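Deliverable D2.4 — example input (structure tokens):
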């Protein structure tokens, strides 16, 4: 019985080759440059293998873009940067503890589970703290534009969005029926989730075309659509080709509809 919690086992990075003379990969006389390289390799490895780390990075990017757009003060920027760094560091420490625990034991151990739970709890506390700080810094600045955007969305031709989404769903089902691959909600060509996600992105882009920060809103929607597509590939339900075709189908269908009837 595995000692891991109900989550993916942390994949092991490739072991570096031994140095000449039988010396291990991390000698005690490691130079400053080598130490820096090892640290960067650690960051890159976590980004490549940990979905939560990529999510944190994406959210941090959006927050920093908002900070620039709304011209936050130097003190507010420092506060945001500390909160972001706290979350990223906690996530990396959590990953390191999981890897060390997996190496230390191969059978179920309550203490191993406890160590992983505590590390995950540290990430949770850091994330909640970052959300709270982000709200305090950006809430007032986002209040007015968000209200105007909601008014715009309320007055937009909602029927076009609904028609676009229905057409995308019907199109996905039709293609899956023709190719006889997958089900309407799982697997097959194209990816229905990716098609709907990118159809939503395109609809949001058209609905907010008169909004002052339409580029930012569209960018955030696009990032969310990409995350949906990524999860379908990572879960093994769809291939990259199926997700790409689904994204293209949803985007083109919604674009054509809004151009023709908007």
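Example output (designed residues):
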């Amino acid at each position: 019985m595995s000692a891991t919690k109900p989550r993916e086992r942390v994949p092991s990075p490739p072991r570096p080759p031994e140095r000449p003379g039988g010396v291990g990969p991390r000698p005690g006389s490691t130079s400053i440059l080598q130490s820096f390289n090892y640290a960067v390799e650690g960051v890159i490895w976590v980004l490549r293998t940990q979905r939560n780390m990529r999510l944190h990075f994406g959210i941090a990017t959006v927050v920093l873009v908002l900070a620039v757009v709304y011209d936050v003060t130097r003190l507010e920027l420092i506060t945001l940067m500390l909160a972001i760094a706290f979350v990223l560091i906690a996530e990396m420490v959590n990953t390191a503890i999981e890897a060390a625990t997996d190496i230390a034991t191969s059978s179920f151990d309550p203490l191993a589970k406890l160590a992983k739970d505590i590390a995950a709890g540290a990430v949770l506390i850091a994330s909640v703290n970052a959300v709270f700080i982000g709200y305090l810094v950006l809430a007032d600045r986002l209040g007015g534009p968000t209200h105007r955007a909601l008014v715009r969305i309320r007055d937009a031709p909602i029927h076009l969005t609904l028609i676009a989404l229905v057409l995308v769903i019907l199109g996905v089902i039709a293609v899956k029926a023709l190719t006889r691959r997958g089900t309407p909600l799982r697997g097959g060509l194209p990816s229905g989730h990716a098609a709907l996600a990118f159809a939503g992105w395109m609809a949001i882009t058209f609905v907010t075309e008169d909004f002052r920060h339409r580029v930012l809103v569209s960018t955030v929607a696009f990032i969310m659509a990409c995350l949906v597509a990524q999860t379908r590939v990572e879960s093994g339900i769809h291939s990259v080709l199926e997700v790409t075709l689904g994204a293209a189908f949803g985007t083109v269908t919604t674009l054509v509809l809004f151009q023709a009837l908007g």
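The radius of gyration is 23 Å.
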